[in-house]
Every structure is written in C-alpha cells, then in structure tokens.
C-alpha cells in the first residue's frame, strides 16, 4: 500500500479549520487532525489550479475580431499579456495573440513579455498580422522584447514555444545595443518557429541548450541570431542548439553568429545581403550544412579561432569577402562537398595560422581565386576538389607541409 506524504506548506489555507489534538483523536469538539487537513488543503489547491484555463486569447486594440478573454489598449500591452501568462496552470498553457498591433513598453524589472521560471508555455500569434512593436530601449543585458529565462544554470526553464508572430524592433527610433527581439537564457528544449523579426539590434540572443529556431525570417536587423556562452554564468551550458530552414537578409552584422559554443546544428538556412552569412568565433564541433550564403558583403561562412567543425554541402556564391574563410588558428575543420562560385576567394586559409584542416571534394568555379593558403597554414589537406574557371585556381603564398593532391584544375 502506498503511503501519503503530506505537504507541510500547502498552497491553500483555511484558518477556520482547527486541527485535532493527538491526545484527543476522536473528540467531537474538534474538526480534523493535521494529516487529514493537509490532504484537504492539497486537494483544494489542485482543484483551484485545474480551474485555470489552459488557453487564454488576447486581442490587440485594433484586432479585427475581438472575441477574446482580454483586449489590450495599445499602451503597455505587456501588462495584460504577462498577467495572462501568470494565470496559466502550473503545468503550462497557451497565450493566443489575435491579429493586430501590440505595443510593448519596458516592464518593471526589465524586458517586456516574460516567461520566467515557467515551463511548457506557448505564445502564439496569427502569423505576420500579429505584430509586437517595441516602444522602449532596453537597459538590461538579460531581457528581450520576449524573454524566456530560468532561475539559474541548475534551475532552467524548458519546453516553451514562441510561434507565428512578427516583432518590429523600431531600430531607427529605439536603438540600443541591448535591444534583443527574443532572449533565451538558462533554458533548454524551447522552440521559436514561424517568427519574423525585423529592425531589431539583435533578433534572437540565445544562451541555452537544445533549443530550436526554425522556419523564421530575420531581416534588416543589426544582427540575426547570436548564439553564445553566458558571460554572466561561468557554468553556462550552451550547446546542441539548432538553427534551421530560416532566412536572414539585409542584416548589418552577421546573419548567424556562434561565439564560444559547441555541438550546434546550422542547417538549411538562406543568408544573403548581410555583412557575413554565418560566423563561428571560438566555437568547436558544430555542424554547418546545406546552407545558401549569397551576396554577403564579407565572407559567406567565416571561422575565427574555431576548431573541429564540419562545413559541408553549403552553397556560397557572390560573396565579396570570400566563400569560406578560416583565420586566427582555426584548426582541424572538415570543409567538404561545398559549392562556391563567383566569390572573391572560394576557400581562404587566412592570417593567424590555420592547420590540419581537410578541404576535400568541393566544387569551385568562376572565382577570382579558388583556394588560397597564407602564412601559418600548415599540414592541411587539399584534395579532390574541382577547381575550374577561376582566375587563380590554387594560390599558395605561405605555410608548410600541406598536402595538395588529386584536384582538378582547369
């Protein structure tokens, strides 16, 4: 037989119920003994929690249809949204935002819409017609227009979803280096999907593990997605995140930037018209595959002081600073099966020393320079690449003990 374990701190209290004394277990003048009282309290608390709606619908001040649980006024709309999040059951639930514009100001303590220390919460819009407008400049590093954050590295939040809405950062009016569209911190297993973020300083600032960003559009921001180790928590675990099937264009900085992270998947994205398409800085063991990087002002894919990454099956075309560039001690990377055309340089092992990389099985055509090895590029393997119709198919200006074998040069 199982034993009931009482909760010594029940969330429901009734001061009118007097506990029965242990010395008088059957007295008719008393009501309940402590064990029965706690059982009643916990049952009532569970019943009250179960009465909370699992889905709350919120209309904007200008929604076309206002059949909703709450309607915002167009001023400080985050207050109604946060109150709705707080009223969801402890097990989670959904906030459904109807079409229209939600104007968000800075909430007390920082940020605007907040999922703090909560799990399995969904914030869902109706698509691009659900617009969250930034109406303030952020002054705290740890908050975004939408913030998903756990209490600590040992007490993370998980299983939350943000989907099918648009964020307008109003960058020209509300500038600031700490303006993040979505901040995910001390969190695992969260998903951002079907979201459009435009005119923000940073569209998504991601510090967590096993999170997914997919089927999103990031346009005309200063930076798209920045994934980095948590500078405020020495034990931060930032790895195994996925950014996939998303489009990054017109961003002044990087489309996707990884800084101090590992074991992430950057797969199937389109990056064009950014400064760099994809940039890995001090990051290792990541998989960058099947992306299209086209027409970026600098490199399509840039590795800086990054080791043991797999760069495979990408298309890099028309990038001004090179298709794929390695610099500052980027060693032991595998560059395989990529197609690069019409770049200034297809693959560049640039300054700072880059050693023991394998550049194999790639197709390179119509570039100014196919592959270039500069000073400090040692013990690299350059093999079985198709280097055709480049002004300079293979240019070696430095380095030593490199193996160059089986390449087709025409």
Task: Describe this structure as you would to a colleague.
- The chain is built from two helices and 41 strands.
- By secondary structure, it is mostly beta strands.
- It folds into three domains: 51 residues, no CATH class; 179 residues, Single-stranded right-handed beta-helix, Pectin lyase-like (Pectate Lyase C-like); 158 residues, Pectate Lyase C-like (3 Solenoid), CATH 2.160.20.10.
- Strands 2-1-3-6-10-13-16-19-22-25-28-31-34-37-40 form a 15-stranded parallel β-sheet, with helices on one face.
In short:
By secondary structure, the protein is mainly beta. Helices cover about 5% and strands about 40% of the residues. The chain starts with about 35 loop residues before the first helix and ends with a strand.
Descriptive tags:
410 residues; mainly beta; Pectate Lyase C-like; 3 domains; 15-stranded parallel beta sheet; 13-stranded parallel beta sheet; 2 helices; 41 strands; 7% helix; elongated; disordered N terminus
